[in-house]
Amino acid sequence: MTPSRRRKPVRRVKVVPYVVPTTRSRPTFDPLLVPTRWVKFIVALFLVPLLAVLTQTFFTAFARATVSQRLWAGEEFWFFALGAVLWLIAFFGLPRPVIIYVFGHELTHALWVWLMGGRISRFRVGREGGHIVTNRTNFWIALAPYFFPLYSTLAIAIYGLTGLFYNVQPYGRLLYAIIGVTWAFHFTFTCWMIPQNQTDLRDHGTFFSLVIIYVMNLLLLIVLLVLASPQLTFAEFGADIVTNLAAFSHWVVYWFDQFRLGAHHA
Question: What is the residue range of 86's domain?
């Protein structure tokens, strides 16, 4: 977003509920009822160690594929990287196509509503933000635009459908470049939107939402890495995860024993 002398309102994207009651009854107090946000927060806390192991496994596999297996020498890597670099130059050096992002953001909400059996009664997009009106919402629907690269998915789908009727193999390099552009588009706008106090994140707890966004984007990168590296399989990556989980468990047990022995001597 280019700076200007006149302060512009913050662009926000939100999901609006299908029905907004004019009056709300005060919920009855139940001491045995645990708020859903608390449960999600606890779930996110337990996910953090698994995320650390998954992150370590990804970067280890990426380094091995890049250095030992010469992933960097493949045309898939170079055209994907070229597309990503071109988008980064455009994102930081040119006016940002906010309307395209907002349209994709709201369309992703709508697609996930349909996938979960919901209905859309209103779809609104503008430069200052947008919203959908739906009869169904949950954290998957609310957070989908932050981990589901819609335009990359559309590019792959168009390429695949076109391949049913024409020989598109000569345009494989172009596909890699388009995926690089669209994935970088998704990544940069996601990083740009998250700090802007999005209702999508606050409605389900910011910490829980950030953990889900991180793990889903990391899983996407893992899939792309395995598909791009001929010598890396999902089975091998799964075995690496098990090995790192075992090492992490041993580390936790070791420090627990050290803490217990220290407390006993004290």
Answer: 72-95+140-234
